[in-house]
Structures are given as C-alpha cells and as structure tokens.
Amino acid sequence: MGYGTVSRLFHWTTVLIVLVMIPVGLTMIQDLPRSVQDPLFILHKGLGSVFLTLILARIVWRLRHPPPPLPESIPAAQRRVAALSHALLYLLLLTMAVSGYVRVTTGGFPIELLNALGIPPLFSKHESVSLAAKSVHLTTVIVLIAVIALHVGAALHHALVRRDGVLARMWPPVAPR
C-alpha cells in the first residue's frame, strides 16, 4: 500500500524546490558580481516564501492523513529510525523556511514576491535577531543535507538491495489507480 497522490505531489514538489533552493542558496553567498547575486537572492527568497506555505500545508496534510504502514518485513528498529528521520526532515524543512523568513525580514531586506502580492513583513528590522536567524539557517542546511542523504540512501537501499517495495510507496509522483 502506498501514499496517495496528494502526499506524493507534496513530497516531489518539496524535493524539486529543495533541489533548487540548496544550490541557489549556497551559490548566492559566494563572492559573485551583484548582477549574478541579486537574481539568485530574489529567486531564493521568493521560492522560500512559496516553500514555507508548502511545508505548512504538507504538515497539516500529514497530520490529517497518516502514512501507510511499512511492510511487515521491516524490523522494529528500522521503523523507529524511519519515523525519526521523517519527523526530523519535517522539522528541518520548517526550520529552514522560518529561519530564512526571519533572517530576511529582520535584516530589513525585501521579499520581492511577497511585496508584489501586497503582503507586508511580519517582523521589523532587528539586527541581532537577523544574525541569530542567519546562524540557525546556515546550521540547519548542513544538518538537512545530511538527513536528506540518509533518506535518499535508505530509499535506494530498499529499492536496489532489499527490493521490498518501500520506494514504490512514494514513486511514481502520482499514485497508480
């Protein structure tokens, strides 16, 4: 038994956005000409705003639609590690989105997408809060990359070594009928 189409679309949309956000985020902080950096910052902030909304909706969906059970062949310890890693992924993704938003708004920087939509910042400029949020954001991305690597490695292990159908619970992105 696999995840439904909505859960799969939330998952794969998250994957696509993260696969853009991390390289863009790591690139934009390099010593680059402003003509390169500025569009990267605008893209990162705009996608981050979309991502914050997506991850909040995804968490609400997940709370209302529990995941299908893992196959009985999965040992109890692996079930606990899977549950822990999924919870950690949600926590890290939410932390990334919130800390990024707080960093930008308390740093006094615009979020062009939200400005265009007429959505004012929730926080005023506050340099020490901005620096703390920046630190949280940078630390969290390192942990997030490690947990994503663990998650992908586990999925590949189940698909290529164990061949136990765990990956098929989430792939393809649209649930088969």
From TrEMBL:
It is a multi-pass membrane protein. Coiled coil: none annotated. The keyword Transmembrane helix applies. InterPro entries: Cyt_b561_bac/Ni-Hgenase, Cytochrome_b561_oxidase, Di-haem_cyt_TM. Residues 3-172 form the Cytochrome b561 bacterial/Ni-hydrogenase domain. GO terms for cellular component: plasma membrane. The chain crosses the membrane at residues 9-29, 41-61, 81-102, 138-161. Its main location: membrane. The keyword Transmembrane helix applies. Its cofactor is heme b. GO terms for biological process: respiratory electron transport chain. Keywords: Cell membrane, Electron transport, Heme, Iron, Membrane, Metal-binding, Transmembrane, Transmembrane helix, Transport. GO terms for molecular function: electron transfer activity; heme binding; metal ion binding. SUPFAM superfamilies: Transmembrane di-heme cytochromes (SSF81342). It holds the Pfam family Ni_hydr_CYTB. It comes from the Bacteria. It is found in: Cell membrane. Belongs to the cytochrome b561 family. This is Cytochrome b. It comes from Amaricoccus solimangrovi.
